[in-house]
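pasting for ref. prot 1 ->
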Amino acid sequence: MSTDNEHEPVFVRSTWGTNRHVYNPHNPAGLALIVLSLLLAGGAMYHLQASSEWSDGELRRAVDEAADALEATPTHKGEWTDHVDYGHQIGEAIEKTGHGPSYGVQASQMEDDAHVYEITADGADAAHCMTITEVPEKAVGYYRTVHLVVSVDDRNC
């Protein structure tokens, strides 16, 4: 038992003024390819959206690894520098961990305490409170080196 549409070609020339070939919806294989293409495109869009936001677990791992990286690297300050805003360094350290997307993290310095940062990310409901304590190591000329002691709490600041 054969139908007329089984003899239709899978690809036909476009009727929109171009010379390209398109799937033929009158052929069962062409129709299946159209549906499959739409499903694949939808799946790709969903994957892109899901991978563009942080999960709570990704943020937690990234913040912990960033805290370890900040502690491992000495920081150099000028002699007259009383305060350093570590927000940028925190963001870079989180990005270098490789967890989550490479954007969407905010490290906001708390107004009432200059060494406390609230870390949030797009898509994550969790917030982390990072406290940085500077321990002086040595002074050379106009610069001094400090070691950072970093603690992280799983809460808003």
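and prot 2 ->
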Amino acid sequence: MKQTAFITGATSGFGEATARALSKEGYKLILLGRREDRLKRLASELGNTHIIAADIRDKDKIFKEVENLPENFKDIEILVNNAGLALGQEKTNDASIEDFETMIDTNIKGLLYVTKAVLPIMTARKSGYIINLGSVAGEWPYPGGNVYGGTKAFVKQFTFNLRNDLQGTGIRVTQIAPGIAKTEFSLVRFKGDAAKADAVYDKTQFITSEDIARIIVDCINLPKHVNINSLEVMATTQTWAGFAFERE
């Protein structure tokens, strides 16, 4: 049995697929998510799993749960900061400030809480790998991307600066920035509007959760002296939108 992998947002999408992939690789798992029923089902299926049913925005609970981990799950070697969301795609003037705050609290502050809680474990062991899930939205602008894109740009820059801070510790840090991928992402973004969510993926090939999980495993299995700083991943069908022009 290998050491422990801690995955946030583990109840669906990239998080669930990564949990399955790392379980096959022989890792014990700490799975964090809001939907306890899903966590329990996944833990029952995979075994060797400790679950944390929590909202990643709950700073006190995150730190308390990490502090009180069972002894056999304290050897955290892998942290996959996957939890995140987009809400709405309105222009800034029309968008909800509450949606903006939820994205900031989840995608930025939640990621920071888990990272800060886990880092002392890794630095004490002088070993570890932190993988932060960014997005092409943090690399390239698109209409309605506003605050979501801003939060993912934070993930990229924080990843780079964290690498600087951790020089000499043996801890690797990578940002993975996916493009179009069919998960529950669009269903959440459009607040349960399945037709609107499905239209995002209509008649095109997209990345799957299993594709991203495979990339994460491949990064982890590289020699420890190799660090992938940032990896931007698009479906072959997706390219940059190009310049927009206002015309009379």
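Helices lie at 13-24, 36-46, 59-67, 97-125, 146-165, 185-189, 194-201, 209-220.
The mean pLDDT is 93.
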